[in-house]
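Take a record.
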Amino acid sequence: MRIQKIEIDEIFVPLATPFKTALRTVENIEDVVVRITADTGEVGYGEAPPTAVITGDTKDSIIGAIRDYISPAILGMEIENLDGIMQRLHGCIQKNTSAKACVDMAIYDLYGKRYNAPLYQLLGGARRELETDLTISVNPIDEMVRDSLDAVRRGYRILKTKVGKEGVRDIERIAAIREAVGKDVKIRVDANQGWTAKEAIRILTAMEDRGLDIELCEQPVKAHDLDGMRAVTRAVSTPILADESVFSAEDAVEIIRTHAADLINIKLMKTGGIYGALKICAIAETYGVECMVGCMLEGKLAVTAGAHLAAAKGIVTRIDLDGPSLCKTDPFEGGPDFLENRIVMNGLPGLGIQTVPAFHGGTHVKCEK
């Protein structure tokens, strides 16, 4: 099975409500998608969001990297030579992790189809069902409480609450949500790099003193401030999850070696896809550091790839794959069943995605051998 053609297009999916963090506000998913066709006629799909404030990747840069660098490097290669493909994919251009992830997941999709098995089974098959949290965007307190209660009514037992925009006022946000949802709902807080180390220590200590029972705090400080994150990790009891600080296996080693965080968040758009994510999983397994698999603001296709990784590996103990639940519509056919807080894998080969709402007409980019 050889890579014969790579096509690039775009998708547009409106969100049910605006997605707000300390870094940005987004109202629609506008992602790049690829379709890779093999000489057997089988196709593999991939998707990447342009998350410039985190990865540095824009829509144009993703398209350009795939068209001008990645496609020429891998066209004509055999899908069975997975390692060889990945060496070329990652070696043909520096950075550009979202573009690499987009093509990576399409290759893995074809790899699963080549061997007629769901990808998560080929990668480890740890479990068939996942439980995800739901993100609560940063908003006025009464609105966040309302959104949290709505999530609980929908069956979510874990809330990922965005903070980091108003310093100590975040304490009142979380206190109000905890009072509203009760003690049986898990609350994770995600500051998206919004605090300084001193702020994070003060805020998290206050939350602990008030008994708010926070399961973890994600990326409290700037991505580059490993010393600051290490200080927070040492000063508080709440587990600290490194997110934007971890793009590569080398980053994971540094986080673990220096005890800068307790947990690692793996996102395919940071790692350059499943290939890089598996390396982080292996390192985390070696050191006994538990991982979360998360997503950017992505459509069902990209989130499906993350779900296959999460279902494959036992070291992944926390799931943040709520992208499809935030969308107003689901234009994709196939893939896992996203049943609010439950993600149920199916037996279809590869990623299991059968239809992608793109590649119609002559507007998309084609790269052929």
